[in-house]
Amino acid sequence: MGRRWASRRLGLALALVVVVVVLAGRCDGGVTSSFVRKTGKTVDMPLDSDVFRVPSGDNAPQQVHITQGDRDGTAVTVSWVTCDEPGSSTVLYGTTKNKIEFFAEGKYTRYKFYNYTSGYIHHCTLRNLKHDTKYYYALGIGHTLRQFWFRTPPKVGPDVPYTFGLIGDLGQTFDSNRTLSHYESNPKAQAVLYVGDLSYADNHPIHDNVRWDTWGRFVERSVAYQPWIWAAGNHEIDFAPEIGENEPFKPYRHRYHVPYKASGSTSPFWYSIKRASAYIIVLSSYSAYGKYTPQYKWLEQELPKVNRRETPWLIVLVHSPWYNSYNYHYMEGETMRVMFEPWLVQYKVDVVFSGHVHAYERSYRISNVAYNIVNRKCTPVPDQSAPVYITIGDGGNVEGLANNMTEPQPSYSAYREASFGHAIFDIKNRTHAHYAWHRNQDGNAVAADSMWFYNRYWHPIDDSATSAA
Ligand SMILES: [Fe+2]
């Protein structure tokens, strides 16, 4: 009897040891970075900061920015603001510096927001441009002429190398300035995929729209020279019925034009473009996406149009992430995920970039599309047809870092870190793209997280082991 009790106790002890070992060694997810940073308060740069300086000269054009102006990159939309009087909406341009070969006529608009009246906001689309060509352009005819330049993308094709930057939730703090400078130090980046939340003007009393103007002047040094592809975030909504402002997205819609009609969209908040070897679909977290809504019907018709033999890289931008293991904006992207994720898996989207959460996270290729209410299959599972989900809402805005994470790290999360930064998606050819995330504390050659993407159409093998985090 005594020996039996002793052996039972021994068995219990062994079982306990096994449980402890299993728990201690449990590997739930990927890497939660141990990077140690100084967490100072993020504050907006004061209005008299040099980065907000108004350009000198009579009625000088300011807040100059460009974006793709059509479906395939042979048009560029130039936008700018004049403050004293409308002035000319004409853009002079050509392929030789200081020599005007062409001109295009634009239009201007303005808006009121409570006690604020905007400047004259000009938009002008330059069309029928040659591919892969440097163009000089000038604005401000009759007043102060300012000249800039841009380079058009190569003709759309399956093996065209192209380098995108990824920035989100930038705002206009000292950290935002570090992020933008860090991005600018990359000599290869050719265009920015911007995942929403621009100025954070709405964090100021009565949505002080002067902060839309300062943001426009702040980012001009990049976006006047290379296109930023816009996705709208919640800080673009500017819905403020308490001060009589009932028209959502009013400042954003007036200031930032996108070529949505070219992709058959009925709204600037969801659209697509082709650029080099990439097909970019922009979705709107803050527009209806339920069944039969315009966005749902558009995406349903859009995905079958993507020809991976022409544009191998299928990229989706959407502000609110569908996979997020931070304790911020928990489940906000869930209903949209439920509606659209099966399509993204079916059409083998390569990567989904989001913002909203002010931190960085990269997922493994996972999907969660098997659940049918009764089968209990509601956990993300590895899926080589699924995109990688990347949260890049770490531009540095005034709301600060999201540094509180769910524990343990979920199995779908490959790498997460609460630092400000930006990323680079560097397409090499139809099969390979190198992706790197750069935190602001590092030099520009340092990648805090990186991965080789294998294209889901041309090279759909497991690429999870290529991560260098
Ligand atoms: Fe957001």
TrEMBL record:
Purple acid phosphatase N-terminal domain: residues covered: 61-152
Keywords, in A-Z order: Glycoprotein, Hydrolase, Iron, Metal-binding, Signal, Zinc
Top-level division of the source organism's lineage: Eukaryota
Signal peptide positions on this chain: 1-24
Purple acid phosphatase C-terminal domain sequence ranges: 386-445
Keyword Metal-binding: yes
SUPFAM superfamilies: Metallo-dependent phosphatases, Purple acid phosphatase, N-terminal domain
Catalytic activity: a phosphate monoester + H2O = an alcohol + phosphate
Occurrences of domain Calcineurin-like phosphoesterase (ranges): 163-360
Pfam families from the UniProt entry: Metallophos (PF00149), Metallophos_C (PF14008), Pur_ac_phosph_N (PF16656)
InterPro entries referenced in this protein's UniProt entry, alphabetically: Calcineurin-like_PHP (IPR004843), Metallo-depent_PP-like (IPR029052), MPP_PAP (IPR041792), PAPs-like (IPR039331), PAPs_C (IPR025733), PAPs_N (IPR015914), Purple_acid_Pase-like_N (IPR008963)
A GO term, aspect molecular function: metal ion binding
E.C. code: 3.1.3.2
Keyword Flavoprotein included in the entry's annotation: no
Family that this chain belongs to: Belongs to the metallophosphoesterase superfamily. Purple acid phosphatase family.
Descriptive protein name: Purple acid phosphatase
Provenance organism: Phoenix dactylifera (Date palm)
Lineage start: Eukaryota, Viridiplantae, Streptophyta, Embryophyta, Tracheophyta
